Structures
1.
Amino acid sequence: DAGITQSPRYKITETGRQVTLMCHQTWSHSYMFWYRQDLGHGLRLIYYSAAADITDKGEVPDGYVVSRSKTENFPLTLESATRSQTSVYFCASEGNTGELFFGEGSRLTVL
Amino acid sequence: TQLLEQSPQFLSIQEGENLTVYCNSSSVFSSLQWYRQEPGEGPVLLVTVVTGGEVKKLKRLTFQFGDARKDSSLHITAAQPGDTGLYLCAGAWESGGSNYKLTFGKGTLLTVNP
């Protein structure tokens, strides 16, 4: 089915472990984004990508790594997870009219 | 970093009531989007406004863009329980701002009680 999918939907990990959140879109949109959503902070941009092999930092990039080897995939990696990275993570892609299409989110808990 | 303020932060009303939520900035927007997010899901676009003074209607929802393009409002008439959700505005500024053009407000959490 067309759309944007994230995996896993739920993840529990421990401090110091590496975690990768996956994002896949079927529209071939150029721009893709990773946001985190926390109470009191709203949606904050972590990283974004304008095209394959082009990525840039957003508002809160520290502790995260992204890559984009293919247009359709935009994984987000937490190299050494910390408790402050407990959050709900949303991937999105941008349509031709500037509309953002969001995935269903990945809820990450770091113990 | 450009700031985008939403108010109120929380709103709990009875079915049938009207309500208005606001989105404000001290800077001029080039465009502004409103999204609704339901529990356990990602935000979904409701509308985009671009022109100062613009008014758009989506069934019982009326969106207005300020004449100076620094503020926007969302008015819901005769709210229904299905309107319950988090309403987010997202603004793009003409200059400055974050690395990427779009910044989200913290949202208004609306609960409509039957």
2.
Amino acid sequence: GAVVSQHPSWVICKSGTSVKIECRSLDFQATTMFWYRQFPKQSLMLMATSNEGSKATYEQGVEKDKFLINHASLTLSTLTVTSAHPEDSSFYICSASRGGIQPQHFGDGTRLSIL
Amino acid sequence: AQKITQTQPGMFVQEKEAVTLDCTYDTSDQSYGLFWYKQPSSGEMIFLIYQGSYDEQNATEGRYSLNFQKARKSANLVISASQLGDSAMYFCAMREAYSGAGSYQLTFGKGTKLSVIP
């Protein structure tokens, strides 16, 4: 199998705090991880592509300093939403791939609510 | 221009009946892949079926089949014998050639909400 674990599944926090979301590939080495954002009743929008050991590639319009991505190992990538505000409230979902044309396996997502 | 178009925001189907969810795509690549994912209300993305652009046969996975019409650039998902548990959002996605970002990115359609009626 190819299991991806995402933690936490739900976060509620005050405006101005930073929130870290973890994405782990449990039974395979993920050369590449992807971070998506999904607003209610909308599709998944790719935020960034992260390769192990190198800087993430962000999509146009995504603030690098706002959404910090670290992919320090072949099994772990983290997304940190810095100084979160209510407009950052959304569903964030990661996926992991062995790289190349290998399929993406998704985590269960994190619902982030900023008060 | 949208790369993946799902024209049906919502669909209803009677339990045990078959249903087709539409997906058209736009690409100039010769090599690409098409995926269908199911997203229940809990949020996780469940992979259903994959079709490669060079695959001559339509993909099938249990009750799911993909009606791939390359000339029309369509990749419709057919669900046979619908079950109540099939009620969910369904997303069509495309993987094109190497993006330069280190791997092959997926582009998702806007989704179709399927409701199965008892």
3.
Amino acid sequence: EAGVAQSPRYKIIEKRQSVAFWCNPISGHATLYWYQQILGQGPKLLIQFQNNGVVDDSQLPKDRFSAERLKGVDSTLKIQPAKLEDSAVYLCASSLSPLYGYTFGSGTRLTVV
Amino acid sequence: GDSVTQMEGPVTLSEEAFLTINCTYTATGYPSLFWYVQYPGEGLQLLLKATKADDKGSNKGFEATYRKETTSFHLEKGSVQVSDSAVYFCALSDRDSGYSTLTFGKGTMLLVSP
């Protein structure tokens, strides 16, 4: 089966600019996650969707980050305006059921200068 | 809150050496435990998991045993290969999240030389 697709792979922007990331999960996976992985740290959950509804966004910095999952399939994560500390790899993952674990995409590496 | 603590890396080994990467956790309730591996330039892949005390997860020669009494889930492999060089993450999910979200450790880099 096709994996979780993410784009772009790399992005460099200046602080205060905006950026958007895209994720296409595995077909049929109802649950979709966005994680932020800062260099030298483990991934941290930003937001969890179940179909097109938000289940958990408690760690999403809502003053600058937003995410949506239209029609319960693809998802976009946006940062506006970006800060230097947003430099990280943004990982998308999807899951058929938590009992079976997640499938992660390759991630988008964001550098804010 | 939940947390996962892993030994700091990098861990540097010669091929065919024995590997142990320590992982301990703090969680409310009764978590499920996981090891994920991240090869350079790739996303995380599930390596193995255990869902209850004394369970042993195993895959590709790696294994880890869920030890509730010591709140540990140490990763071991009897003979590492150069291709095992990667970053290894210990993680847990717990009842409070419906076992649906993961809390990760900081990761341990493994470097295996020929």
